[in-house]
Each structure stands twice: as structure tokens, then as C-alpha cells.
Design a protein that fits this description.
Layout: E1 14-18, H1 22-25, H2 27-35, E2 38-41, E3 50-54, H3 60-70, E4 74-79, E5 96-100, H4 113-120, H5 126-142, E6 161-165, H6 172-176, H7 181-193, E7 200-203, H8 206-209, E8 226-229, H9 235-240, E9 242-247, H10 251-258, E10 264-265, E11 278-279, H11 292-302, E12 305-308, E13 313-315, H12 317-334, E14 338-341, H13 348-355, E15 361-363, E16 375-378, E17 389-393, E18 410-414, H14 427-434, H15 440-456, E19 475-479, H16 486-491, H17 498-508, E20 513-517, H18 520-523, E21 539-540, H19 546-549, E22 555-558, H20 563-569, E23 573-576, E24 589-590, H21 604-614, E25 616-620, E26 625-627, H22 629-638, H23 646-654
Helix pairs in contact: 5-11, 5-12, 14-21, 15-21, 15-22
Length: about 675
């Protein structure tokens, strides 16, 4: 994130005069400029004012002429290098802008602010370069690019090809490099000559595929050796299979550098001239040699102005990566729509919000899938659903109970099994195994997430009152559970109900202070599991927020309760009598049988990353968009959650009568 423009103390924003309708009609563009210190105006500039122009667009000459006439500085505005899922012509707003008072990053005729940074900035700060290396890895891992609506189910071509990158006719960076169709044909000829016998793949530009703009290559340029590659595949597996990369000025050339290539460049893009490319038209003033991390740090960390749409503020690149991670995951999973079964009526509107923004859910009574749409089923209703995706509430759910029909802010999807069923593998198990080793940036993100959770005192439902004073002694918290819950039915053996749980804990700890906490659904009279615990427990706490209890106990003993996981986050020792998802990884004392396949030994932060970052999907009730976990945590902490609605409130009041028939409404 770049600092705000230089304004004198108390002077407020810089007045920015514009002569392009996009500055007025595009709300996101106006907002980022406003947050960056620019006040958009119509009219003519006076001393101290700026003129804003969009890159080298067809309307830029208007602003340039007025700026010259009034001796006003020019602010060049362009999309950042990570823009959105789809091109701007599809109507999607940007997540960042390039704001440059010196020139255009793609036009070497005049040094841009980016070139100045690349030339003069030390780029030797260890923390900065560590951020750069982590972000490069993460962008590749998440398959992100300027536009990130890629189909990850598509296979890349067989490796060993030469990649020749097409660009759109009239593209400003092509024009600035003095290139035309003849230049692109020259590049294609040299690619063949310098790589005898190799296959040549021409990568079509996304806007050409979308029908917005024409490319430079035509079908006449194809041959038995040369083919066009049109699939909407991520650039990262495509670059991985290439033996050489040729480009005029495409951003894909920059990404080729990050992927380990030294591309042959026939124009003068910002990334040429620093020792990382083979330059056909060198820029004489660029003499410095840089590493990939230094180039990335300048172009992605120091130069752009990034925007956070959830908090409506400027931000760092890492926040944008979190945003794109959530948004691209939702689009990639939902782009073909879903069929859904086993979904109760009260859940459907919220499921449509979660999964139906890019292709509507079709609710069906049967669990039959269709060839063109994936199929989802509520996990507890899954019956003979091979190939179906199971859906269940997430671990940071809401402020209020699911049994009271409060909509969730998080849901999990699992293509293998479901997290609470230890009799079968699940995607969560795979993710925990994958996170046995964390990169430093992943470890830091998980640590910050836990810090925020603890500071806000959050748990799954976030209901109940603060804890009252507890008896002195070695306190063990015993959380009661819903006894017909699937995690009990599938994840326990010897101890399968609340009374036996409490007796087992007392037998093993005769001198401890046992604190029994009934499950909130049971307390509310909505589910089964009520017991007379006072004869065994030293204290029975009701209507109490479980998160407020955990700092006051030394241990938690549980069958499969999520409270065990929440206790681990707070450094409390946990003993399990069943096989919850967090058992068997070396972080708990396990007295029940846990699957032998759980052989990985992640750190607590590895478990957190898999469980709270990788596995669930989150929904922001403010913007109505998929969001990262950090945003969901803030909304829960602020009490900003999805409204229950009058239908849900009425229905929830009827459920106490049917507490023993919860299968009718769950």
C-alpha cells in the first residue's frame, strides 16, 4: 500500500480534475482515489490541483491538454496487477490501483514511479523481501493473476512447449512498446528458430476469449507445430510446463519471471531491464540487477494502492490475497451452479446467499446429481451420496444458536466425508496433514487469528453470560453435548452420553473441581441431552458463554465437543473420550479410539490454519459477499450478523415442543 499523496497539514485532499466519465461512474474507482487523498472535481484546475487521466486511454488526451495549458501535474491511474476475478469490462470493480505522478509503468519513454523505485530503492529490507517471497508463493498456490476466474479442473497441456503470449490489438502497453502485428509475427518466428522441434503454444488473452478485444494472432498463423491455447487455465501450471516464454509486454511475462523463467521480451515492460529477462529492445537507463523478490516487492508491495472492500479502507497486499482467496474459491466452486438436497426450508435462503451468487442452487427432494452441476447435501441427511459434497455449519458460526434458526456466517464443504465422522476420511483431515509444516507467513496469519479470537472472546455460537465465580481448586470443564448429535453417534464408543461422561471424569479425577456446562441447544430445550449433573459435578454453569469459562479452568474433558478445540486455542489441556476432528494429532490426550490415519503432527497453528482458514467458507453479512475468516471474526466481535427473519423467529419458538424430533427441522 502506498502512502497518501503529499498534502500539507490541514490542507485536506488534493483536488483532482477529470475528463473521463469512468472517474464519475465507477464507484470503486472514486472511493480508492478518495481514500488516497484525491477529491474528484469537474472544471479546470488551479494552482495546486491535479489532473487525473486513465492510463493512455483514448480519452487521456483531454486531460493531458488541459494539464499542459494550466501547468497542472498529472496523476496517471491504472488497474493494479491483481485486479479482480473478471475483467473490468465484465463490470467487476478493482481491488487496487496504480497511481503515478511521473509516468506510465508500461511506457518506457518516461520513467514511472515504479521505475524510480526499482532504480533507487535499496530493496534490501529483510522483512520486505520475506513478505515478497511469501506472497509470490501464495499467489502461485492460490492460482491468482490480474484476472483470476480460472477453471482449476482443466489440465495443462503436456509439458515441453514454448509459450508465445498474445495481447489485444490497441493495448496501451503494446503501443507504448512500438509493437504491431508484424512485431508479434517476428516474435513467433524467433520462437520457432530458437527452439527447433519444440511445440509452440500461442496463449490467447482473456479479453479476446471473452469477446471484448481482438488479438494479434489469427488462425492463419497456426500450423502443425503452432497451436492456439484458449482454455481458461491458471497461468501457473501453464508456465510450469513451458520450456521458454516469449512476450512483447504482457503481465504474463512478469509472472513467468516469478515462475522461474527468463522470458524473451520484445517490448519494454516495467519488468524488463533488471537482469531477469532477455531483452530485444533494452532500456539504456535500466542498468540495475535485481532478484525476483526485489522486483516483486517494488511492483506489488511498494507501488500499488490496495483496497479492502469489507472494511472500506486501503490495505496491504496480504489483505488483498485474503480477499481473492475467498472470492475465487467461491466462484470456482459455484460457477456451474449446484443441485442441493436434504436442505430444510428455513436454510434455503441463506444457502442461496452462500452458494448461489454465480449460479443458482436448485433444491431437489432426491439426492441424484446432474452431469452439468455438482450436487450438495446437508451432511446429516447424506444417504448413499457418493460424489456429493457434504455441507455443515462451520466452527465460527453465528451469534445465536443454529437450533434457534440463526443464519450461519460460516459453512464447510467436504467432497470426501465430513469432519465429525471419524469412521471415514475427510477433507479436513487432509488439510491438517498438509499443514503439518507451515510457512512463516501462514504461521503468522494463524497466530494473529487466534489472538483476535481470544481478544474478542469468540466461540462457535457466542451466546450466554460472563462466568460467575467458580470454586477454588484444580478445575476441569466438562461440556455437555446433544446426545443424538452425529458426532456422538459416529465418534464415540465406550462413553456416549453426558451422564457417563461426567462419571468417567469424576472417577479419573476424584479430587478435582468438576464444572459441568450443558450444551446451549439442550439448555434451550431444543435438543436431547439433559441430565441431573449436580450429584456429580461441583458446579453446573448455565446460560454462560463457554469462552468466558475457559480462562478459569485447567483442563477440559470431552467426548467430541468443539469446546475442546476452543480450549486448545487458549492453552488449556484437553482430554478426549471420543474422536473429534482435533484428536489424534498429538495435541490432546486421547482416551478414546482415534483413526490410525491421523499420523501427522502439526503444531497448534497448523491445526488452526486447516480448521479455521482452509476448510470453511465465510459470508459477510455487510457486503453480502464471500469473505476471509478475519472479516467474519470482526463481524462476530461487532455483533454484525445476518438477520434471523420473522419466519425463523416464529419457527424457532415451536421447536421446543419437538425437541425429541429435531430431525424434522435440522
Amino acid at each position: 500500500m502506498r502512502p497518501d499523496p503529499d498534502t500539507s497539514a490541514g490542507s485536506g485532499q488534493n483536488r483532482l480534475f477529470v475528463y473521463n466519465g469512468g472517474f464519475l461512474t465507477q464507484k470503486r474507482l472514486r472511493r480508492i482515489l478518495s481514500l488516497s487523498g484525491y477529491d474528484i472535481r469537474l472544471g479546470f484546475p488551479k494552482e495546486g490541483d491535479c489532473v487525473g487521466v486513465w492510463g493512455n486511454s483514448p480519452t487521456a488526451h483531454r486531460g493531458l491538454k488541459i494539464a499542459e495549458k494550466h501547468a497542472a501535474p498529472v496523476l496517471r491511474v491504472e488497474d493494479a496487477f491483481l485486479r479482480s476475478r473478471h475483467p473490468g469490462r465484465n463490470g467487476e470493480p478493482p481491488l487496487g490501483l496504480l497511481l503515478d505522478r511521473s509516468g506510465l509503468h508500461f511506457d518506457a519513454a518516461t520513467p514511472s514511479e515504479l521505475e524510480t523505485v526499482l532504480t533507487t530503492h535499496p530493496l534490501d529490507d529483510t522483512a520486505l523481501l520475506d513478505r515478497a517471497r511469501a506472497a509470490i508463493t501464495r499467489i502461485r498456490e492460490l492460482n491468482l493473476s490480474k484476472y483470476s476466474a480460472f477453471d482449476l479442473d482443466l489440465d495443462p497441456p503436456d509439458p515441453g512447449y514454448v509459450l508465445v503470449i498474445d495481447q489485444t490489438v490497441g493495448d496501451a502497453s503494446v503501443t507504448a512498446s512500438g509493437a504491431d502485428r508484424a512485431r508479434f509475427l517476428e516474435m513467433l518466428v524467433l520462437a520457432q528458430e530458437e527452439n527447433p522441434g519444440a511445440r509452440i503454444l500461442i496463449k490467447t488473452h482473456p479479453e479476446t476469449l471473452a469477446g471484448h478485444r481482438q488479438g494479434h494472432f489469427t488462425d492463419q498463423d497456426l500450423s502443425d507445430r503452432i497451436s492456439r491455447f484458449n482454455d481458461p487455465i491458471s497461468p501457473w501450471p501453464l508456465l510450469e510446463g513451458a520450456v521458454a516464454v516469449y512476450t512483447v509486454s504482457s503481465q504474463l511475462g512478469f509472472e513467468a519471471i516469478l515462475a522461474g523463467h527468463k522470458p524473451r521480451v520484445f517490448g519494454q515492460p516495467f519488468y524488463a531491464g533488471w537482469g531477469l529477462t532477455q531483452d530485444d529492445r533494452p532500456v539504456p537507463r535500466r542498468q540495475r540487477s535485481l532478484t525476483r523478490a526485489q522486483l516483486f516487492a517494488a511492483a506489488m508491495l511498494l507501488y500499488p494502492t490496495w483496497y479492502d472492500p469489507y472494511r472500506d479502507q486501503l490495505c496491504e497486499l496480504e489483505t488483498v490475497l485474503n480477499t481473492l482467496e475467498a472470492q475465487t474459491r467461491a466462484w470456482r466452486q459455484d460457477k456451474n451452479g449446484w443441485t442441493a438436497s436434504g436442505m430444510r426450508l428455513w436454510k434455503r435462503r441463506h444457502l442461496q446467499q452462500f452458494f448461489g451468487q454465480h449460479g443458482k442452487l436448485r433444491f431437489a427432494a432426491s439426492q441424484a446429481s446432474t452431469p452439468d452441476r455438482p450436487h450438495m447435501v446437508w451432511a446429516s441427511q447424506a444417504r448413499n451420496t457418493e460424489g456429493a459434497v457434504r455441507v455443515e455449519d462451520g466452527f465460527l458460526r453465528s451469534r445465536g444458536l443454529g437450533a434457534e434458526l440463526v443464519p450461519p456466517l460460516s459453512l464447510v464443504t467436504d467432497e470426501i466425508g465430513i469432519y465429525y465422522d471419524p469412521t471415514k476420511p475427510s477433507q479436513l483431515e487432509e488439510l491438517i496433514t498438509l499443514r503439518e509444516t507451515l510457512r512463516p507467513d501462514q504461521d503468522l496469519r494463524a497466530e494473529r487469528l487466534v489472538e483476535n479470537l481470544l481478544a474478542a472472546g469468540l466461540s462457535k455460537y457466542n451466546t450466554g453470560n460472563p462466568t460467575s465465580p467458580l470454586p477454588e481448586g484444580h478445575r476441569i470443564l466438562v461440556p455437555g453435548q446433544v446426545e443424538d448429535d452425529a458426532s456422538i453417534l459416529l465418534g464415540t464408543s465406550a462413553v456416549r452420553n453426558n451422564l457417563d461422561l461426567l462419571k468417567t471424569v469424576r472417577d479419573a479425577n476424584p479430587d478435582a473441581i468438576l464444572i459441568y456446562k450443558p450444551h446451549p441447544d439442550v439448555e434451550a430445550g431444543l435438543r436431547e441431552g439433559r441430565i441431573d449433573a449436580e450429584a456429580i459435578a461441583d458446579n453446573v454453569v448455565t446460560e454462560t458463554d463457554p469462552a468466558s469459562l475457559l480462562p478459569h479452568v485447567q483442563e477440559v474433558w470431552t467426548m467430541t465437543s468443539l469446546l475442546g478445540f476452543e480450549a486448545l486455542l487458549r492453552g488449556v489441556k484437553v482430554t478426549t473420550l471420543g474422536a473429534p476432528f482435533y484428536a489424534g494429532w498429538g495435541l490432546t490426550t486421547d482416551l478414546g479410539a482415534v483413526p490410525a490415519r491421523r499420523g501427522a503432527r502439526p503444531t497448534l497453528m497448523g491445526l488452526v490454519h486447516a480448521t479455521l482458514i482452509d476448510y470453511p467458507r465465510y459470508f459477510d453479512p455487510v457486503t453480502g459477499q464471500p469473505c476471509p475468516v478475519e472479516v467474519a471474526v470482526e463481524r462476530l466481535a461487532q455483533g454484525t450478523c445476518a438477520p434471523t427473519g420473522p419466519f425463523n423467529r416464529v419457527l424457532s419458538k415451536l421447536q421446543g415442543v419437538f425437541a425429541t424430533h429435531a430431525h424434522l427441522w435440522r
